[in-house]
Design a protein that fits this description.
α4 packs parallel to α7, α10 packs parallel to α11 and α12 packs across α13. β6, α11 and β7 form a beta-alpha-beta unit. The protein folds into 2 domains: 345 residues, Methylmalonyl-CoA mutase (TIM Barrel, Alpha-Beta Barrel); 67 residues, Glutamate mutase, C-terminal domain (Alpha-Beta Complex). It has 17 helices and 10 strands. The protein has a 4-stranded parallel beta sheet with strand order 1-8-7-6. It has a two-stranded parallel sheet with strand order 2-3. With 483 residues, the chain is an alpha/beta fold.
Length: 483
């Protein structure tokens, strides 16, 4: 196999791989690219994700989108119709089950059979590959709202083929963001190559006049990810996708809890992504943003959980995110009911409606934006430099050396040397810089922020701060203070 390159695949290269991809499960036989393109072209604009996102961006409004996925087609239709009609969701998801994410389609098939027998959901999502093109089309034709594929799959090639042919117009994930936080033993070379396939497939649809939105996964490993880390991954995955012909990209960020830092992060994410796309010749790519509401531990009490949801909604509104991924008051106890999912949507929409015309414009916000932008440029520029003209190789070298380091990731390919913790105001800083290539000025800034918290709490700055911060929200606080 030739060395991995950040270079647009030729049609012959793509078709050579495609023959094998479509044989991974028998429903791959249902995929006919010409028919799929014709089907996508026939979709009304209200069902096309990129159209709805671009319109919202132009109008300056924030759209709401839940998470939702159950094993059977009719049950998934009923669930999404309820969230569309009762929850007033602007965009809809289809969350994929864990077996499909691991390409274990036989086990997914058993889960479907058991779900039918027991009349209970025996999978934690929708097995789109097993249901095939026809099953996906049933979803698309039963809803008036665009639907996105949300998953967590290192190798999502067959999933993309089937869902695109079935009429889905948005696909989440990327070679870094759906590998390092999700898999232990999968190499970056493998996932970047597999996601080049997904992006090239997206580009082929785009060239045929069928716009399909792509969304790198923003939160990575959760709520203690410094903004510059998730920004760097989003920008790099956007550059890799754009090279393969993707024209509509939604970059994401997971709420960290400090209002000023979160708003600054969302605003810089959009501007930095556009900056790098323009710089490297992809200025025709349309960029939108998504805020993921709190991804960490949730209070078990529903009333307290609603406050966490509302807090995320405030960030989405004040940062004017294009869309927000909404959580439910049942996050702490398991899979939410459709009613709980709807309650989260309505809580979010109400908060956004009240704050939609307001702006946060303070000196601390401006300072935070400068800090995040500087940190992000340090990392992205070094990744590009390491690649010596080949961004794909630059990513592999950067992750292996800790230049790009995702905290608390399970992947053995991730250095894991950088450690984040909260400062005295709850913003995410670096307790240990590791090999992140920050300037001396930025390193000193992080050290002083940690020392400031240590002085306030009358303890040494230590790893215990990191542990305390991980569990803080579930105990009703943002910063993990000692008892």
């Amino acid at each position: 196999m030739q060395e991995l390159q950040n270079k647009k695949w030729t049609r012959d290269e793509f078709e050579n791989v495609r023959k094998d991809v479509l044989t991974q499960w028998h429903t791959g036989k249902e995929v006919d690219l010409e028919k799929a393109i014709a089907y996508q072209k026939g979709l009304p604009k209200r069902k096309i994700f990129s159209h709805v996102l671009n319109k919202a961006k132009e109008e300056g409004i924030t759209l709401t989108q839940p998470r939702a996925g159950v094993p059977l087609v009719l049950d998934q239709i009923k669930l999404l119709q309820y969230l569309q009609d009762e929850g007033e969701a602007d965009l809809l998801p289809t969350t994929i089950d864990s077996y499909t994410r691991q390409n274990r389609y036989k086990e997914a098939e058993i889960g479907i059979t058991e779900s039918v027998k027991s009349n209970k959901s025996m999978l934690n999502g929708f097995p789109a590959v097993n249901h095939g093109v026809s099953g996906c089309k049933q979803l698309i034709e039963s809803l008036d709202t665009p639907i996105q594929v949300r998953h967590g799959t290192p190798d999502a090639r067959l999933l993309a083929e089937i869902t695109y042919a079935g009429g889905f117009t948005s696909f989440e994930g990327g070679g870094i963001s759906y590998n390092i936080p999700y898999a232990k033993d999968v190499s970056l070379e493998t996932t970047i190559r597999d996601w080049q396939y997904v992006d090239r497939l997206t580009g082929i649809y785009e060239e045929a006049g069928c716009p399909i939105n792509r969304e790198p996964y923003g939160p990575l490993t959760g709520t203690l990810v410094p903004p510059f880390v998730s920004h760097s991954v989003a920008i790099i995955e956007s550059l890799l996708a754009a090279e393969q012909g993707v024209k509509n990209i939604t970059v994401g960020y997971g709420q960290c809890g400090n209002l000023v830092q979160d708003v600054a992060a969302m605003e810089t994410l959009h501007s930095l992504t556009e900056e790098y796309l323009r710089k490297y010749g992809y200025g025709d790519v349309e960029v939108t943003t998504v805020l993921h509401q709190w991804m960490g531990g949730f209070p078990e009490d529903e009333a307290k959980a609603f406050s966490v949801i509302a807090w995320g909604s405030v960030v989405a509104a004040l940062s004017h995110a294009t869309k927000v991924i909404v959580k439910t008051p049942h996050e702490a106890v398991g899979v939410p009911t459709k009613e709980a999912n709807t309650a989260g949507l309505l809580c979010t929409k109400q908060t956004i409606n009240m704050l939609g015309d307001q702006h946060l414009n303070t000196y601390s916000l401006k300072d935070e934006k400068v800090i995040i932008a500087s940190e992000t440029r340090c990392v992205v520029d070094r990744v590009i430099e390491l690649g010596q003209g080949n961004l794909a190789q630059g990513v592999i070298l950067a992750v292996g050396s800790g230049v790009l380091d995702v905290p608390f990731a399970p992947s053995r390919y991730n250095a894991g040397k950088m450690l984040p913790a909260r400062d005295n105001e709850g913003a995410i800083r670096l307790f240990h810089v590791g090999n992140i290539p920050l300037t001396k000025e930025l390193k000193d800034f992080h050290q002083e922020k940690m020392n400031e918290r240590a002085r306030y709490e009358n303890r040494e700055a230590s790893f215990q701060m990191v542990i305390d911060d991980v569990y803080a929200i579930s105990k009703g606080r943002l910063v993990g203070r000692p008892r």
